[in-house]
Amino acid sequence: MAADAGAPRRPWVRATAVLAPLLACVILSAFRDDITTVTSALILVVLVVAAAATGDRPAGLLAALSAGVGFDLFLTAPYLRLVITDAEDIEATVLLVVISLVVTEVALWGYRQQRRAARRAGYLDGMLDAARAAIEGDLPVGAVHDVVARHITDVLGAEDCRWFPGPVTDVRIAILGHDGVLIRNGREVDVERSGLPVDEYVAIPVHRGADVVGHFLVTAVSHPHFPTHEQLRVAVLLARQVAPLDAGGRA
Fold it and tell me: Ranges for the Sensor protein KdpD transmembrane domain (predicted)?
């Protein structure tokens, strides 16, 4: 799978997720007589939400646990000890941790939904771009192939994709079928689990009626990529955009 662009920042995100609630508790402890327990808990929940909003689950969980520990140490008696003697303070601490964990999961769910929606919007843009290039006739056939190949590369997270006329003749090449299922050596490959074959080709045949007019060859060179079934289907649909074309020109 392609490396997460945010991965290099995760250690800093997680460190901040731990330290921010503790620092907030230290500051709030200076105003124990002026700020209610509920207010302090809500402030800590906001910090947990901020950590979860980064999309990093460990950061959200660490923030929730840090908020609970900080609340116990600095805002409940006896102070600076991981001991709570008051029943209401125990209830408040437990509720703070539970609510923070629930809020973390809700925030992460929203983050995933947002990313999924953005990804699908990107797929649609790619489909429209490829369809426009194939239909409008402003570009030569080779340029249309390049446009579609680029979008396939982006969708699958692969390193390269190129168009070749005619059917696939090498039986060793894995075939991505019209249903988005990858067949390799006669067997179905679970791409989401095992990834695209590394240093090998994956062919996406393009049919025009009963004939195979050509195919796109996709390669994952440096490391495996793990596209979803949805991404595989999008790649197949992108490849179909060149079906009206032939080696000599447009239909």
Answer: 16-120
